[in-house]
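Need residues for this backbone.
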């Protein structure tokens, strides 16, 4: 899994306790799902 890159402001918020959660974008999962659908149509 790739690391999450934070901006300076995000790091400061995390260290100050103003930020407790981060979310990873789910683009990769969407790409994998699209590839599976494409392979399904190609095989038949």
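Answer:
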């Amino acid at each position: 899994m790739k690391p999450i890159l934070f901006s300076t402001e995000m790091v400061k918020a995390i260290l100050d306790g103003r930020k407790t959660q981060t979310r990873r974008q789910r683009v990769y999962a969407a790409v994998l799902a699209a590839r599976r659908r494409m392979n399904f149509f190609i095989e038949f």
